[in-house]
Amino acid sequence: MANVRGCNLPDDLLYDVDNHIWYREVGDGTVKLGMTAVATAMAGLLVAFTPKKAGRSVEAGKSCATVESGKWVGPAKAAFQASVVAVNDEVSDKPALANEDPYGAGWFVILKPADWAAAKGALTPGAQVAPKYEAKMAADNFAGCA
To answer: Which residue(s) pair with 136 in the sheet?
Structure first.
C-alpha cells in the first residue's frame, strides 16, 4: 500500500487523482466508487452525503453524489459515463463513515460503466499512484493526513 504524506492509498484500487476518487472492480461489470483518504482529510469531517439514486445515469466528469463537510461542499465526480446501480445507505445515514473507513465501509456508489475498458485505461493503478499524489498534494499545498 502506498502512503503519501501519511495518507494511505491501497494498491488494489484505481484512482482519479485530480478528483480524489478511487474505484474498485466488483467483478460483475460494476465498480465501487469512493473518496480517497486524501480527500476526506482535506474536506474534514463529512456531515452530509447525497448520492444520485440507483437507476440514474452519470455523464463522464459529472457528479454521482454531493458531499458536505463543515468547510467544504462539492461533487464526487465519476471519471466515465455510467449508471448508478447501488448507493451506500450507511454513508447517507452516517457520512463520517467515509472519514473513518474510506476504502471499506465508506464507499459511495456502485456504478455500471458504459465502457469500462476505456474508462479503466484513463485511471491510475494503485501501485503507480504515489508519485501523482505527491505532485497533487504539493500543488494543493496539502501537508497530508493527520
So the answer is: none
Q: Is residue 53 part of a domain?
A: yes
Give the predicted TM-score (pTM) of the model.
Answer: 0.96
Euclidean distance between the first and the last CA atom of the chain, given in angstroms as a whole number: 17
Residue with cell 473507513: 101
Counting the structural domains of the chain, the total is 1
Assess if residue 60 is contained within a domain.
Answer: yes
Take residue 138 and report the three cell numbers written for it.
Answer: 504539493
Confidence of residue 91 (pLDDT cuts 50, 70, 90): very high
- Output the domain CATH number for residue 57: 2.40.50.100
Q: What is the pLDDT of residues 62-88, one digit of tens each?
A: 999 999 999 899 999 999 999 999 999
Q: Quote the DSSP letter at residue 40.
A: H
